[in-house]
Write a structure and sequence with these properties.
- Strands 1, 12, 13, 14, 15, 16, 17 and 18 form an eight-stranded mixed β-sheet that branches. The protein has an eight-stranded parallel β-sheet with strand order 4-3-2-11-10-8-6-5.
- The chain contains eleven helices and 18 strands.
- About 25% of the residues lie in helices and about 25% in strands.
- With about 400 residues, the chain is α/β, with parallel strands linked by helices.
- The chain folds into two domains: about 130 residues, Lyase, Ornithine Decarboxylase, Chain A, domain 1, CATH 2.40.37.10; about 240 residues, Alanine racemase (TIM Barrel), CATH 3.20.20.10.
- Helix 2 crosses helix 3, helix 2 packs parallel to helix 9 and helix 8 runs parallel beside helix 9.
- Bound molecules: pyridoxal-5'-phosphate (PLP).
- The site of pyridoxal-5'-phosphate has 16 residues, from helix 10.
Length: about 400
């Protein structure tokens, strides 16, 4: 496999050797300028949509602080994520809780924080809100399947749209306010067609339905799924969002539209830099063992089905090679077939687009610590590099 990079996302201007001298390897370089830029690009492509950054994609204090200052709202799913937001004094009015399945203590933790918008997609979940019905508003999550998404979330969550009237009637009978609808077309959606079809299906339901107090529903949450260009094919976000904008323009004027993007905002903001710690010749290939791997930042290759662009900082004639991680397990292979120049111990491997679902899903298997996140261009009050994600 020959990797042709840098792409538009890769900044060759970083002084990798010096960064490594200061911080050591491996590291995830977080460029807060890129993060702000991604937020602004999506906000410009969806001008009438309030963005709630999906914290799960990159639960890091500097990421949250940068986005807070850029004007983002936040999508949370667990009490742990709430703690992260509280630590950054993010006002609860700027949050929604979107996990469709919650324990009572999770609901109470969110309400104690001040978050009052929740998501539900089944009657058991709906009934959990009976004690809190005076204080909360729910979004009903509808399922739309998407064969073109890398992770089709409708397999696990969402109510079939034909069952929505029954759910809404039940909520009305229980006196629980359904203030709107939500959906998530699946992560890394390859085209906007499913977003468009979902918006159109929800429009009819929004028009027909009234909440428990007789008021029309007023919120449509169009989820996440906005894609990143891992393969360097060129997916301009403005063009991707154009049909979505058209579909949104046809909604009744009283509908407030929100979205929960994670990957699009966070992925381009981090670049993984790992160093070679061991070398072996096996089966006519050179194996390079790195200090980060599939149990670490490259865990997205397993959980998120991601394939990151990977290349060596060194240039020169290339040879069939394998990149493997530092643990003792044989699943810990990052790239089984990659052409690389001859490398020595200490040489660097660079992988851009590694800001979403990477550190977030990394483990510490074999007691290999999670890779440190080193911010650059960050808000001044917390520019100290943080070794852990929290
Ligand atoms: C409820 C919810 N909202 C938002 C997101 C973020 O989606 P993406 O990173 O595809 O934009 C996810 C991802 O799994 C999710 O489950």
């Amino acid at each position: 496999m020959t990797v042709t990079w840098p792409s538009t996302y890769f900044r060759s201007t970083y002084d990798w050797e010096n960064l490594l001298k200061t911080h050591g390897a491996p590291l995830l370089l977080l460029d807060c300028d890129t993060l702000r830029g991604q937020y602004k690009k999506l906000a410009a492509a969806l001008p009438d949509v309030a963005l709630y950054f999906a914290v799960k994609s990159s639960p890091n204090a500097m990421v949250l602080e940068t986005l807070k200052q850029a004007g983002s709202n936040f999508d949370i799913a667990t009490p742990g994520e709430i703690k992260l937001l509280e630590a950054r004094s993010i006002p609860p009015q700027r949050t929604i809780h979107t996990h469709p399945i919650k324990r009572d203590i999770d609901i109470r933790a969110s309400m104690r924080y001040g978050c009052t918008t929740f998501v539900a997609d089944n009657l058991t979940e709906l009934e959990k809100f009976i004690p809190y019905r005076e204080r909360v508003g729910l979004l009903l999550r509808i399922a739309f399947s998407n064969a073109d998404a890398v992770a089709d979330l409708s397999k696990k969550f969402g109510l079939a749209i034909e069952d929505a009237p029954h759910f809404i009637a039940k909520a009305k009978a229980l006196g629980i306010r359904i203030k709107g609808l939500s959906f998530h077309v699946g992560s890394q959606s390859k085209n906007p067609d499913v977003h468009v079809a979902a918006i159109q299906s929800c429009a009819a339901l929004l028009q027909d339905s009234r909440d428990s107090r007789g008021a029309p529903m007023s919120v449509l949450d169009i989820g996440g799924g906005f894609p990143i260009d891992y393969e360097g094919r060129g997916i301009p976000i403005d063009a991707f969002c154009a049909p979505i904008r058209t579909a949104l323009a046809a909604l009744p004027k009283n509908i407030h539209v929100i979205a929960e993007p994670g990957r699009f905002i966070a992925a381009p903001a981090m670049t993984c830099v790992a160093s070679v710690i061991g070398i072996a010749e096996r089966n006519k290939k050179t194996w390079y063992y790195l200090d980060d791997g599939v149990y670490g930042s490259f865990s997205g290759q397993v959980f998120d089905h991601a394939r990151y662009p990977i290349f060596a900082l060194k240039t020169g004639p290339t040879f069939p090679s394998v990149l493997a991680g530092p643990t003792c397990d044989s699943i810990d292979i990052i790239a089984p077939d990659i052409d690389l120049p001859k490398l020595g111990v200490g040489d660097l491997i660079i992988a851009p687009l590694m800001g979403a679902y990477t550190s977030a899903t990394a483990t510490e298997f074999n007691f290999v610590p999670k890779t440190q996140i080193v911010p650059v261009n960050g808000p001044e009050q917390i520019t100290q590099p943080m070794r852990r994600i929290v």
